[in-house]
Specification:
The structure holds 2 protein chains of 2 kinds.
Chain A (H helix, E strand, L loop, with lengths): L1 H33 L14 E2 L1 E6 L12 H11 L4 E4 L2 E2 L2 E2 L4 H7 L5 H6 L5 H11 L3 E2 L2 E2 L4 E3 L3 H5 L21 H4 L9 H13 L3 E3 L5 H17 L4 E5 L12 H10 L12 H25 L4 E5 L3 H8 L3 H6 L5 E5 L5 H8 L2 H7 L4 E6 L1 E2 L2 E2 L2 H13 L4 E5 L13 H11 L4 E2 L12
Parallel strand pairs in A: 1-17, 2-3, 2-16, 3-6, 7-10, 10-11, 11-12, 12-13, 13-16
Antiparallel strand pairs in A: 4-5, 8-9, 14-15
Helix pairs in contact in A: 2-5, 9-11, 14-16
Chain B lengths: L1 H5 L13 H19 L6 H17 L15 H27 L8 H28 L3 H27 L4
Helix pairs in contact in B: 2-3, 3-4, 4-5, 5-6
Classes of the chains: A alpha/beta, B mainly alpha.
Chain lengths: 445, 173
């Protein structure tokens, strides 16, 4: 009893100091969250150069858009480590990542549900643009999913007539976002059984997708409206389309496309073989025509707004996704190319950089190289990243962009986050300006 | 729990990267969480916070680094076990000593707290580092070290928690 009283009295006596220290700790913690410790800024060792140093910010396997401090922290770190461009996702899985009246009208949802819940519906793109301007980072919103959409999305459910079909009438696809089979092309058929099991599980867990028909006028108008909405609403340096801005070669057998083909081929139906060269050419040309509409629409809103493209290597892009980006560049429809070269094998990586289409592009516009910095299931060593950046520089390309933010220097990497940051700091010891792109007037005719 | 909260401000890394500042910040999160529980039993919670922070600052400031947030340089299990026991013994001693100075004011046989810390950290760190190393070799992700260290802290919390319950049953000093 005596002890209880004693403890109670002591407890009361110590209550204020206890809570003072506790609140001090809490205050320190909050202060550190808001103002994280700054990295030591190395004095520039070389003069500032011109080089694209970009990174993609995505919503998949990444919390950057969802955590309250994610965007500020990411852009602050990127700026301090002398990056100069970010490609934040704005269109993925049938949702926008900004409040969109176009998306609301077509899908019934103004933006990604996760943002509505975790960010209380705030406009993260506006935050990225504002913070990007402060940190001198070029912001180029990235329409990642292009014509791809989850089969269960509002978009697909509300507009079944927009979806393209195979010859057998099926429409479901398994998304191979990074074309994993291309990552190790040297041994495509000798994968260990553990890898096959992993792949099997991945395919079971992956949500099936469908493909919006890029030839369908309503689909075109929807995608165009989204792009124009972003350019009109936000002070962005450009917009970016990627490898999903095409059509998988096996698709195109939907009633609309067949009718259109028949109209232009004296009633003849499309070939049964989806890889028929004339059939590929016809569909690819239709997509090129739409690309021209996109370019013109963007430039009519803002002539200085870049149209950036991050496709796969040309042969694959054209033959598998009907994306004839070589022609797009020749016709002046692309201002900046960031070629995705997600290869582990350095010889294959080098070979992709020397392809004729890439060389042609370099003669026309700034060309950067997309380098894989890692995925959850596919971590990439810093050494490989350093080697690939060096190879890009040795060949005189205009810079690099990394896929993706979370794998640059997080726990998702093979090395510790700090070691990764130090390595990137040695790759980019001084700031660099982005490659200059002269505004081109929209093509005529 | 305190360890997971500390990860909001402290980034796990190599020994050379986790020093006085990281130790102090990490210890603040840990000690604050512990004090929330301890204040129900002891009237010394704020001294506990101070002792813990100073101990971790000392550990972090030494060449050893704030070991509770450190990933070893090697991935091999054998050296991880050995270094885990060695480093755990040192950390347990230093931390236990600091907190013993506070505990002895109210608890009998408070010296047992030092032993409990040595045992907790030696066992916890060797298990956590070994598991972290095996996972990291399998996944090639640094995230494995976070899992390993979380496990280490769970073991430490288990052993020292039992010791604290035993100590609190004793009469006041």
């Amino acid at each position: 009893m005596t002890r209880k009283r004693h403890r109670g009295r002591k407890g009361k006596q110590n209550r204020n100091p206890t809570w003072f220290i506790s609140w001090l700790c809490l205050g320190l913690a909050i202060a550190l969250s808001i103002y994280p410790p700054q990295f030591k800024a190395n004095p520039p060792t070389i003069s500032a150069s011109t080089e694209l140093r970009g990174v993609w910010l995505t919503n998949v396997a990444s919390g950057v858009l969802y955590t309250p401090w994610g965007i500020n922290r990411a852009l602050d770190q990127l700026s301090q480590l002398n990056f100069n461009t970010v490609y934040p996702v704005v269109w993925n899985r049938g949702n926008t990542f900004y409040p969109s009246s176009v998306a609301k009208r077509v899908t019934g949802r103004s933006q990604d549900r996760g943002l509505k819940i975790l960010r209380l519906g705030n406009d993260v793109l506006a935050q990225i643009v504002k913070q990007g301007n402060r940190q001198r980072l070029r912001v180029i919103p990235w329409f990642e999913y292009g014509f791809m959409a989850p089969a269960g999305s509002n978009l697909a459910k509300r507009h079944p007539g927009w979806i393209s079909l195979r010859g057998d009438g099926t429409k479901m696809l398994t998304p191979d976002i990074l074309e994993p089979n291309l990552l190790k092309p040297a041994k495509p058929n000798v994968e260990p059984s553990s890898r096959k099991i992993q792949e099997f599980i991945r395919k079971q867990l992956t949500r099936k997708v469908v493909w919006l028909n890029p030839l369908h006028p309503e689909v075109q108008q929807f995608i165009l409206d989204l792009i124009v909405e972003v350019v009109e609403k936000y002070d962005v340096a450009g917009i970016q389309l990627d490898d999903h801005f095409g059509l998988p070669v096996e698709l195109g057998y939907d009633p609309y496309t067949i009718r259109l083909y028949q109209q232009e081929h004296q009633g003849k139906s499309p070939p049964i073989n989806p890889k028929d060269s004339e059939w590929i050419r016809w569909r690819a040309d239709k997509i090129t025509d739409f690309m021209e509409r996109v370019f013109q629409a963007v430039k009519s809103v803002n002539p200085y707004c870049l149209v950036s493209l991050s496709p796969n290597p040309y042969n694959f892009a054209y033959r598998s996704y009907l994306q004839d980006w070589q022609t797009w560049i020749k016709r002046g429809l692309v201002n900046e190319l960031v070629l995705q070269v997600y290869r582990d094998d350095l010889k294959t990586f080098a070979a992709e950089l020397s392809q004729p289409a890439v060389q042609m592009a370099r003669g026309q516009i700034p060309v950067g190289v997309g380098i894989l910095s890692g995925l959850w299931g596919r971590p990439v060593d810093m050494k490989q990243i350093q080697q690939q950046v060096q190879m890009v520089r040795d060949r005189g390309f205009n810079g690099v962009s990394f896929f993706y933010w979370e794998s640059l220097w997080s726990y998702m990497s093979p090395e510790s986050p700090k070691k990764r940051r130090e390595a990137f700091r040695s790759l980019f010891p001084a700031s660099a300006t982005q490659p200059k792109v002269l505004p081109k007037s929209p093509p005529t005719g | 729990m305190g360890f997971l909260v500390s990860l909001l401000w402290v980034e796990i890394g190599d020994r050379t990267d986790i020093r006085l500042v990281e130790g102090t910040i990490g210890a603040s999160a840990i000690a604050f969480s512990q004090a929330l529980v301890l204040r129900q039993h002891l009237a010394i919670a704020w001294w506990w916070i101070l002792a813990s922070i100073l101990s971790w600052a000392l550990i972090g400031g030494s060449g050893m680094g704030a070991i509770g947030w450190v990933a070893p340089g090697t991935l091999l299990s054998e050296p991880r076990i050995i270094f885990g026991v060695l480093n755990g013994t040192i950390v347990g001693t230093m931390l236990g000593l600091g907190q013993w100075l506070v505990l002895r004011q109210q608890v009998k046989k408070a010296w047992m707290w030092i032993l409990a810390n040595v045992a907790g950290w030696a066992i916890g760190l060797s298990i956590g580092w070994t598991v972290g190393g095996i996972l990291r070799q399998t996944t090639r992700l640094f995230f494995s070290e976070l899992i390993g260290l979380t496990l280490a802290w769970v073991v430490v919390a288990g052993i020292t928690g039992v010791a604290l319950v035993v100590l609190l049953r004793g009469k006041p000093a």
